[in-house]
Write a structure and sequence with these properties.
Layout lengths: L8 H14 L6 E3 L3 H7 L6 H15 L6 E3 H13 L1 H11 L4 E5 L3 H4 L3 E5 H14 L18 H5 L4 H10 L16 H14 L1
Antiparallel strand pairs: 1-2, 3-4
Helix pairs in contact: 1-2, 9-10
Length: about 200
């Protein structure tokens, strides 16, 4: 059974139109770099990290000849999977609700009146994946790495200041002397020292 059997005639027509808009040379394939535009044209805009995950999945399972191109059937299969999955429905709701921005009131009684902190779910997801990859072999971060990008584990992982200091050193090598980072027997005082070190070095 082909992937097109899983979508309605109306959806198939929309998907064909969207695919043809992107497939400008008319060869029946699009390159992976065109996939983002294709999802937008099909009224299913996805953040960059989600498209990268789909491309990676397609290349390992769907692109059987490893030519780096997506056929129309492969696109319909991916589109159908996204449309029918509960994850995709939840994901679309989050994106439609303030463009995936999470807002949190102040976290202490002094700051909670009238303040708001916000962050993008898409950026958090990408940032967590980057930190996991960059610090996966660092023995000082094993207590928090890997973080789950679908939770708020990023915010607890940076709480002791070690990950923050390591990320600063990844950005500009030797900004923070590794010997100055408190790594063992952490107390509220040594945690505060780590956080101050990261803040002052940033």
């Amino acid at each position: 059974m082909t992937a097109s059997a899983h979508v309605s005639a109306e959806e198939l027509e929309e998907l064909t139109d969207a695919f043809c808009k992107i497939d400008t040379d008319g060869n029946g394939f699009i390159s992976t770099s065109e996939l983002t535009d294709l999802f937008k044209a099909a009224n299913l805009p996805l953040p960059g990290y989600k498209v990268r995950e789909i491309i990676q999945d397609l290349m390992t399972t769907g692109d059987q000849n490893n030519d780096g191109r997506i056929s129309f059937e492969e696109f319909i299969s991916v589109f159908h999977g996204l449309k029918s999955s509960d994850v995709a429905k939840t994901f679309r709701k989050v994106i439609n609700k303030k463009e995936g921005i999470c807002a949190i009131g102040g976290t202490s009684e002094q700051s909670s009146a009238g303040t708001q902190h916000s962050y993008s779910e898409e950026e958090k997801y990408a940032f967590v994946n980057w930190v996991n990859k960059a610090l996966e072999k660092d023995p000082d971060c094993k207590h928090v790495i890997p973080m789950d990008p679908n939770t708020d584990s990023l915010f607890t992982a940076v709480g002791d200041g070690i990950v923050l200091c390591k990320m600063i050193n990844l950005s500009v090598a030797d900004t923070i002397d590794e010997r100055a980072i408190n790594k063992k027997k952490l107390t509220p005082f040594t945690i505060q020292e780590n956080l101050d070190l990261a803040l002052n070095s940033a």
